[in-house]
Amino acid sequence: MEGAAGEGKPITKPLVLLLPYTTQGHINPLNQLGQRLALHGIEVRHLTTPYLLNSLLPTADRRLSIPTELISDGFDESGYAQCGDVQTYLDRFKDVGSRTLAELLGRLASNGRPANWIVYDAFLPWVADVARRFGVSTASFFSQLGAVNATYYLHCHRKLNIPPPGSEPTTPVPIPGLPSLKFEDLSSFLIAPESIPAYYDLLLNQFSNTADVMLVNSIEELEPDVLHAMAESLPFKPVGPMLPLAHLDPRASKQRANETDLREASRADDLLGWLDSKPPRSVVYVAFGSIATLEEAQVVEIEAALRALDKPFIWVTGAKDSVAGREAAAGEVGRMVGWSSQPEVLAHAAVGCFVTHCGWNSTLEGLTLGVPMVCMPWWSDQPMNAMFVEEVWGVGLRARAGEGGTVGRKEIERCVREVMADGGEKGRRIWSRVQKWKEVIRTAADKGGSSDRNLIGFVEMVRDKH
Q1: Which residues form the signal peptide (predicted)?
Q2: How far apart are CA 286 and CA 374, in angstroms?
Q3: d(CA 134, CA 108)
Q4: Chain segment 262-304, per-residue pLDDT in tens
Q5: What's the CA gap between 163 and 195, in Å, rounded?
Q6: Can you tell me the mean pLDDT for 149-175?
Q7: What topology is assigned to 265-443 in CATH?
Q8: 325-345 exposure pattern, b = at least 16 Cβ within 10 A, e = fewer
Q9: Which among 104, 119, 101 has a CA at the least distance from the CA of 42?
Q10: Three-state SS for 47?
Q11: pTM of the model
Q12: Which residues neighbour 292 within 8 Å (Cβ) at sequence distance 6 or greater?
């Protein structure tokens, strides 16, 4: 095809490369962004490592739906597990990743198909330095709640007054533009930077290299004050929720939500068939993400709570070996699985409660799919997400831990009964509010909504620099 102005040059689409951080919770939303960009006529290629490529593709129903290019994190055999130390892994990824990314960009340019943009996970700020050497525009992608990003930004610039270690959990932490925060609501890495210093540095370094635009997996209506405040200082654009379109728009073609799961998935159709046999809003769904490993004491308390509830449940243990010894505990009432296609389960009418660690992806899925939540935050951004769930959006309850940090069976049972309306008016109010937010989010993602407008704005930026 010839150029419209008669230059004799073929018309090509802009080429955007996507580079996520190498964990499940960062890969999925960035892949969903790639799907959106492709729908707008952008050529997208997903950058991944040899280990992740081999982990993603062996199962036929988990093929990536956008083309891939390889770079290296320096651990091609088994990724982070080959290293086992956070700081060593991050240093090696920066060193080898910078070199192999530069080689890729040079090769693409030599082949006559140079990249126009790189969208990279904000955990990898060194990508911007490499991109600039090749004249490639950059967009950083923030996979956490805007309010969480704001606290890291303010702390990075010495504008956040954090109470000293050992402060009372309810000690106020006033931050302009944010709801009333308490010490216990802050990220664990701000409360105890020494717990994992490499992660602390990683989170603060997200702002060490300002990209041409900063995309955040949130929605303007969810946290308007903080997102507007951030946009005054940084080129912030909320484009969330980055979930499969099938869960946002019934008109969208069916897209399997687990196409980039890193673990062996349970047969989704079997699990959904089991849900089909249950009454509406009757099932408790329990899942704590792809990283958390529960202490045995906490597992015992969850088991006891589920027995006392005597409600149908699905418990995603996160590891096959933990399923085998506990399937008997599920009895006839529940299902225990190593993994599930979470958005598909949450979207099912039978699910009435989501017991969650409150990672941002899971929280956003609960909100978008209209499922009340019981929050059991563990670390990182999860406490603040839980605070927003309970106190800002009013779509769930936080189950409080007792001495030793374990959430007791009675507390879990109480929270589940309340959000499922067993407790009366409070549960009905929570259900009503989560349905309201579900519609707000879908409107934002729909044509002409706030997130859609921001995404279109980014697409226009990509085209303008092509």
Answers
A1: none
A2: 9
A3: 11
A4: 444 445 678 999 999 999 999 999 999 877 778 899 999 999 9
A5: 17
A6: 91
A7: Rossmann fold (3.40.50)
A8: eeeebbeeebbbbbbbbbbbb
A9: 119
A10: strand
A11: 0.91
A12: 318, 357, 378
